[in-house]
Amino acid sequence: MRQDTAQHATPDTTPHIAENLPLHGIHVPLVTPFTPAGDIDAGALEALAHEVLDAGATGIVALGTTAETASLDEAERDLVTGVCAEVCRERGVLLTVGAGAGGTRAAEASLARLARWPQARAALVTVPAFVRPSAPGVLAHFERLAQVSPVPLIVYHIPYRTGQPLDAAALRALGALPGVAGMKYAGGGIDQDAVDLLGDLPAGCEVLAGDDAYLSPLLALGAAGGILASAHLATERFTELVAAWRSGDVALARPLGHALARMSAAAFAEPNPAVVKGVLHAQGRIPSPCVRLPLLPASEVAVTATLERLGELPAGSPQQAAHAG
C-alpha cells in the first residue's frame, strides 16, 4: 500500500510557481568531503560552501552527482543537506537540492522530503534514467512532480547518463510547465537542439550549463549561468566569465572561456568528482581525496594536469583582482 507523502507537502497539488528565483550565475554542486577514515567531514563541507560563496557563487547545490549521492545512505544525505541548508540560511543564497528517481512515485517521495529544509528553494531533478520513457511520458512525469513538489524544479537533461535524448521541442515543453523554473543542460556538446532551445526559451525558464567545458558557448547563446563541478576550483573566474558575456565583453570572455574549458576538460579526464577532489585536497581545502567505490581516487597525473591548467588561466580583470585581494 502506497502512502503519497508528496501530496502531504502540497495537498491541493497546485504547481509551485517560482518567483524571483536567482537562476543565474554560477551554482557549485558541492563534493562530499570524506575523512581519511571514509566518513563525511561536515566541517570541511561547511567551509567549502562558504569558500565558493565568498568567491562569488550565486548558490550551491547539495546532493548532485558530484556529491557522490548514490554512495550516501539516507542519514548521510540528510547530513549533507542540513549543512548546506544552514550555510545558505546564514548567507541568504539559493540552495538547490538534488532529488527525484527513475519512477514517478519514488520521485514524489524524494521531493516531499525537501519540505524538512525550508532553506531549500529549488530541486534538481534528472530526466528518468534507464527507464527511457517517451517524450510525452517524460513530460507527464515532470508535470506530476511540479504539482506535488514543495519547491520549483530544475530539470536536469543529461542524455549521455540517462539514455534519454530529448529534442528542443520536448525540452521547451518541459520548460513551459508551471513549477519548472529552469533546466540544467548537459547535452554533451553544442548541437542544433541547444541552439533551438536557447533561441526560443519559454517565459520564466532559464538554462544553466551543465557541461563545464561548454559553459562559454552556452552563455554566448543565452544561458543564464551554470551548475559546474569544476567551479570548485576557480569560482571567481567562472563568475567573471558569466559577467563578461552578460556585459558583452567578448575580448575578456573568449580567452577566459577557452582557458576554463581546458581546465574543465582536465578535471573531467577521470570520473567526476575524483579529480576535483584530488585538486581540492592538494590545495589543502578538504582533508582527503577519497571517493567511494565504485569510483577510484584520481591519478597523480590527472591532478597535476588540472593544477597546471589552473595556473595557465589568464590574468583576471582589475575588479576580479581587487576582490581576490
Structural account:
An 8-stranded parallel barrel has the order 1-2-3-4-5-6-7-8, surrounded by 7 helices. It has helices at 5-9, 42-54, 74-91, 104-112, 135-148, 159-162, 168-175, 192-199, 215-221, 235-247, 250-267, 274-282, 300-311, 318-324; strands spanning 25-29, 59-62, 94-99, 120-126, 153-157, 180-185, 206-209, 225-227. Strand 7 (206-209), helix 9 and strand 8 form a beta-alpha-beta unit. The N and C termini lie far apart (59 Å). Helix 7 (168-175) packs parallel to helix 8, helix 11 (250-267) packs antiparallel against helix 13 (300-311) and helix 12 (274-282) crosses helix 13. 45% of the residues lie in helices and 12% in strands. Mean pLDDT is 92; it is low at 1-14 and 321-325. With 325 residues, the chain is of the alpha/beta class. It is globular. It contains 14 helices and 8 strands.
| Count of beta strands | 8
Averaged pLDDT: 92
Count of helical stretches: 14
What kind of assembly state do the chains in view correspond to? single chain
